[in-house]
Design brief:
Belongs to the helicase family. SKI2 subfamily. With 1059 residues, the protein is α/β, with parallel strands linked by helices. 47% of the residues lie in helices and 12% in strands. A hairpin with a 7-residue loop joins β13 (499-503) and β14. The longest helix is centred in the C-terminal third of the chain and has 30 residues, at 1013-1042.
Length: 1059
Amino acid sequence: MDEGCSRIRRRVSVRKRNRRSLESVFAALTAAELKPGDEEKEDEDEETVAGSRRRKTMDVQPVENIDSEEDMFGDYDSFAENSFLAQVDDLEQKYLQLPEHRKHATDHATEDLCSESIKHNTLSITTVGDCTELKIDAHTKNQSGHEDVSIDPEADVLYDIPSSQVLFFENLYNSSNDLGDPSTEERDWNSSSHKTVNEELPINNVEQPQQTDESSSKVRTSSDANRRKSLKDHLKNTMTGNAKAQTPVFSRTKQLKETLLSEEINVAKKTIESSLDDLGPFYSLPSKVRDLYVQFKGIEKLYEWQHACLTLNSVQERKNLIYSLPTSGGKTLVAEILMLQELLCRRKDVLMILPYVAIVQEKISGLSSFGVELGFFVEEYAGSKGKFPPIKRREKKSLYIATIEKGHSLVNSLIETERINSLGLVVVDEVHMIGEGSRGAILEMTLAKILYTSKTTQIIGMSATLNNVEDLQEFLQAEYYTSQFRPVELKEYLKIKDTIYEVDSKAENGMTFSRLLNYKYSDTLKKMDPDHLIALVTEVIPNYSCLVFCPTKKNCENVAEMICKILSKEYLKHKEKEKHEVIKNLKNISNGNLCPVLKHTIPFGVAYHHGGLTSDERKLLEEAYSAGVLCLFTCTSTLAAGVNLPARRVILRAPYVGKEFLKKNQYKQMIGRAGRAGIDSTGESILILQEKDKQQVLELISRPLENCYSQLVQEFTKGIQTLFLSLIGLKQKILLKERSLWEITVESLRYLTEKGLLQNDTILTEKGLLQKDTIHGSEEEFQYSFHITKLGRASFKGAIDLAYCDNLYRDLKKGLEGLVLESLLHLIYLTTPYDMASQCHPDWMIYFRQFSQLSPAEQNVAVLVGVSENFIGKKASGQAIRKKVDKNIVNRLYLSFVLYTLLKETNIWSVSEKFNMPRGYIQNLLSGAAAFSSCVLHFCEELEEFWVYRALLVELTKKLTYCVKAELIPLMEVTGVLEGRARQLYNAGYKSLMHLANANPEVLIKTIDHLSRRQAKQIVSSAKLLLHEKAEALQEEVEELLRLPSDFPGIVASSIEKA
């Protein structure tokens, strides 16, 4: 090609047309880049294949650079009377007179027909250096196969020029709104001259004139040709603009990469649009999901009931579903597959609600690997963790795993920001908890709000212990599926004295004789073990595992010690090395400390498991039990509802939980731990009972499960009042039909108004508008209008218990008068949970000792809150106190001392010893304070007067959440990494999140003591997921900063003009 000139020639290419009017008709296709250096080679190739195509060649004359727009193309004959553009102009006039070209159907059949033609025909206007090319490409083939067949223009006007031009100006005429304004048109085309414009128009093969006529007859044109701009003028303006344009220098590699990326995005979008809900053979999921289940969980095949449940019509139609199966039946796997379908196929976010923090963390560890492999985020909403509202993701979707309380706050924030429809699925594990106290009331509120505000969100509830399913079905508008399937058969037994009976529902009294215990007891042994526990446990340990459920925490420790005193020394030899390793690791995570009971029992393979253990200890013992190093746990009932630790035999030490008689739900959950799928052929449960309890136990095993009832009214401040406050805060209507509900509503709204959380505006009566100070009257007479106050909004946004919200406000207000910042004590006091203070019983001598060790500034905090040293001294010495002091304030300050000491020392063992408190209780206090501190932070964010607390509470919440040295905090952000493990990793050189995310699991196993391969992979996966999450958040922040605001004045003005 001569330098500084333009030319017209034909070539075959596949390029994409970027004009908006064409995109509405044709599918967007991939842009292919042409390198300038290849043009001469293409010319030679075209001559080689000349025998297969019809070509028209026009002479090209060099053009001088002339500034005048009129003379720019003076020496170029393309605007002469017999030129190509003249032919175009003539053709345009002829074409407008043809009636058969007046219609054009814009459907995909045209696209399909076009794609089957010999080649796509392309109009490509390309700017290269200082030279502009106008390339008109046509690949046509005549019927006889000869070259250069002359066709009379009068025979068919479509043959005057390449057929790509026909569709070009046909579509041009279709876009009167786009091209009617010459200034807009010229601006658009001139701007396009600064970059490569690839325009692609698929057309029909011109072999058959009939096909051409049929396709062209579909083209709709306007009869008013005077409104159009002449194509000749249009092309001339374009060429003028191209010639005048200063062409920037582009990186060819960058352009090729962008083209490739554009192609991949288009293909992905087409794939998603064409097969939205079906991405593969594994229940509409890619086969990779099935492979991941084999790799991560060893699950190769689903149970029949799981397949049946997943293929239910109600599930396919996305109806709400409740399904119930015995414990260990595999309920969670069904829920996980449904969640993955929602995340990957329907591209919606998912919320999973679990009852306890420990289970949330376990589930996050298990699903993080799937998130990394399949491209979705797994976010923790438990304790002090979680953002409200959640981060709005660009591409990837999020799986929120939350406790009941955090799940409620999450749903509130989504409703408030009008994003509730982004939640495609809500899964509730242990849905029967809807009938259990204040937590049940919160769960019921959460589900009710989802049902009321989002018609597209599916709700899945699962439980092992449901009875009145019909009531729950009606509430959730759900289908029901149940099965009695258990992967391992469960046999239930009762033990009275030394006789064991099998539970048999067909028998007259519900049980039949099974066997007598065959174990020789001396008189001394009988006194030590009157319930014959040794006889029962030695039948299964050490080769199989056993769980012994005890009524109280103290009883757990006593039973574990008693068993180890009686067991023979042979038990010490079983996995001796591994047990020593467990003891060593327990010491490492506890700064050299070790519980004396565990020190005695672990060598025998026995340990206790209850809330008195720290999280680190509990996690390490659970891992040792799962690995078979420990074979016997003595535990409380909380283990049954918590982490999954199955056993060959489950023994219930007594039919009591604490001092209360066992409930059927609790009994079913405990015995459900018997039988390990894939390991045991059968599972056994043995309930030990005394003769006096026999009748009650027989009634227990024969009666149905307890019904599940609403707790909204029973739990007043955490139930119906919280519901009304949040509904008014979220501007939702309250619709009441029943009389009793009206009375409850009146009482609740009066309470909220008296607390200052709501303000009553006006009451509409038949006689007109009246301002009322009190709430009264009947449903027929009044329609109440309320709006939420600032305090009310702060309370519901912070999820503060309404029983304490006014106390919190007063305490924070009083704190502003003299906030002591010389130490953390004052802030810690303000974030100490009120409910834990009411249950506290201080040791007055310890209280006085700690008080006397305070600095003057710290003692000033005590004076500010209203507790004097004199009062504590009198209580410690047992003297009578005449002056009345608020007990809750005194108790709360005592707990503040515990937390303050813990933050200073970060050693839970020394604090436990100093305050004579169980280390597990102190850790629960710490996690409770971290969660409450997070709530107080959200509370203060809604009240401008408390601005000073915001920055302070952010840091305090972080300190309370981790309670470790600052260098360990980044490692502890990873789910499943607690203090002990974080210290091990830090000492091994893994000092940041990036280090963990890039770690090799095999190297970790060798470097870190007592770390299994599964745990190592989970830690690395969790770290990767967290790192991707943070990177994504930063990218979104950058894009948000660079994005043109939607309310930008120019945009608003132009939108008004268009309207």
